[in-house]
Design brief:
Helices cover 38% and strands 14% of the residues. The chain has helices at 9-18, 23-38, 49-64, 105-112, 155-162, 179-185, 219-229, 245-249, 275-290, 306-323, 332-343, 347-366, 393-403, 409-413, 442-456, and strands spanning 44-47, 75-79, 116-121, 133-134, 138-139, 168-173, 188-191, 211-216, 257-260, 294-297, 372-376, 417-425, 429-436. The chain contains 15 helices and 13 strands. The protein is globular. Strands 6-8-7-12-13-11-9-10 form an eight-stranded mixed sheet, with helices on both faces. The protein has a three-stranded mixed sheet with strand order 1-3-2. Strands 4-5 form a two-stranded antiparallel ribbon. The longest helix is centred in the C-terminal third of the chain and has 20 residues, at 347-366. It is α+β, with helices and mostly antiparallel strands and 474 residues long.
Length: 474
């Protein structure tokens, strides 16, 4: 039996355990697809061809000896902000970076689960923007429409999964950087509770607003990768109680009270919800009501939450810029934002960090009336390639806030959110909606997403740029 190249993570792991496919054959095909898609999609910064084949051979030996691990021999990708031993971590920046000595904790856990890391995916410089472009690597394109961005900053991971290059990938989310590209490439994107997937060797990434998350075509696949990557380094400051994400994907969520939140949270700049995106999110709300949930329009009491985001984001960026080996090669917008971060690093940062507990209480109280918030993931469909690249700092912020005003509050709170596909708008462009919950609510959000998926079967739709078994490019 040949293994379908577009099979998901769960299916691939099962085929390897059953012996219907070898890790070597799978990884060879995966590498061939990555190579075939690199010219059109440009999803990868680094491809670990030789190392991945050696790891596949080692996995085959283990499989033959009867060893079983959740992802033994399964090819996956990780974003280029994660340390993979022997590879550089350039995080979207220009220049030649030295290889790092050891795996970051999330990668270490993936390997412990048996996964083969085939490569590191493209991200914009220090993950700042909702597009994946830059002088370091060019533009990463959207498999649904190559004139448009897959989003960012985990755009390489999203493009690779959406096109079927790999069954699932890790990304990171500091202001929607998993959820935004998931929404713009028709994927499941899980932003977990802060600390669920370790960001070690950094106990906190970007002052605690950035977490690692998973991108996949199905809820079960995203949940399996979450389970495999979850867990903590001994020195991690945030250690949430463990959850069984895969178990949650098989459970009925029960009847829930869902708040449909269409109003953009506080932003200093104007943001308007595109009517086509609004219509798709409202359709999802109607589908949830038809499934027996109580859905009503209500907005969480965000207040001035934006004021707490900026110090954390810019101070976190300033820390990265301070460590950058080639500061002169950084984008001017990066240097300007880091300068602001250096100004905000004292009292403003302390006040922003202290405000989190107040926000937890106030927005937490909203969850006594509702179980889940349903909100747009973005306010607009994916922008065209190059549209934000030449802009100055303020114009970039304006464009970014106009397109993506909905995702970042959950980064301030550190709580889970899951992007689910909401359908397509003009130009065949995907858009998404996010399911948001209180602390440690991944199981609830995942079971609700799985219920929607069983109804809508969004994973059956494939993009035009699909590199799978039937593709001549593969």
């Amino acid at each position: 039996m040949t293994h379908d190249r577009s099979a998901g993570l769960v299916e691939t792991a099962r085929a390897l355990a059953d012996g219907t496919v070898t890790a070597r054959a799978l990884v060879e095909r995966t590498l061939a697809r990555i190579e075939a898609g690199q010219g059109s999609l440009n999803a990868f910064r680094i491809v670990r061809a030789e190392a991945a084949l050696a790891e596949a051979d080692a996995a085959d030996k283990e499989l033959a000896a009867g060893v079983r691990k959740p992802l033994l021999g399964v090819p996956v990708a990780v974003k280029d902000d994660m340390d993979v031993a022997g590879e550089p971590t350039a995080f979207g920046c220009q220049g030649e970076f030295p290889p790092v000595a050891e795996d970051g904790e999330a990668v270490r856990r993936l390997r412990a689960a048996g996964a083969v890391v085939v490569g590191k995916t493209n991200t914009c410089e220090f993950g700042q923007w909702p597009f994946t472009e830059g002088p370091a690597f060019g533009a990463t394109r959207n498999p649904w429409n190559a004139d448009h961005t897959p989003g960012g900053s985990s755009g390489g991971s999203a493009a690779a999964v959406a096109a079927g290059l790999v069954p699932a990938a890790l990304g990171s989310d500091g202001a929607g950087s998993v959820r935004i590209p998931a929404s713009w490439t028709h994927l499941i994107g899980i932003k977990p509770q802060r600390g669920r997937i370790s960001t070690w060797p950094r106990g906190e990434s970007f002052q605690g607003i950035t977490v690692n998350g998973t991108l996949a075509r199905t809820v079960a696949d995203a949940a399996l990768l979450l389970d495999a990557a979850s867990g903590n380094h001994a020195l991690d400051p945030h250690r949430p109680p463990s959850v069984d994400a895969s178990g949650a994907a098989r459970r009925d969520p029960g009847r829930l009270r869902i708040a449909l939140a269409l109003k953009p949270p506080f932003t200093a700049l104007p943001a308007r919800l595109d009517p086509q995106v609004r219509a798709k999110v409202v359709q999802l709300a109607e589908r949830l009501a038809a499934l027996g949930h109580t859905v009503e329009e209500a907005d969480p009491p965000y207040g001035q939450i934006g004021l707490t985001f900026i110090p954390r984001a810019t101070v976190g960026l300033a820390e990265r810029v301070g460590e950058a080996p080639f500061p002169a090669l950084l984008d001017r917008r990066t240097r300007d934002a880091a300068r602001l971060g250096r100004l905000l690093g004292g009292a403003p940062l302390r006040a922003a960090r202290r405000a989190e507990a107040v926000l937890h209480r106030r927005i937490g109280a909203f969850f006594t009336s509702y179980d889940v918030v349903l909100a747009p993931t973005t306010a607009a469909p994916p922008p065209r390639i190059g549209s934000m690249l030449p802009l100055g700092g303020f114009a970039t912020d304006r464009a970014m806030i106009a397109a993506c005003p909905y995702a970042w509050p959950w980064n301030v709170l550190g709580w889970p959110g899951v992007n689910v596909p909401a359908g397509f708008v003009d130009g065949g462009l995907p858009v998404g909606a996010q399911l948001l919950g209180p602390a440690n609510s991944e199981p609830l959000l995942i079971s609700l997403a799985a219920q929607l998926e069983a109804e809508l079967r969004w994973h059956e739709a494939w993009p035009p740029l699909r590199l799978d078994a039937d593709s001549p490019a593969a």
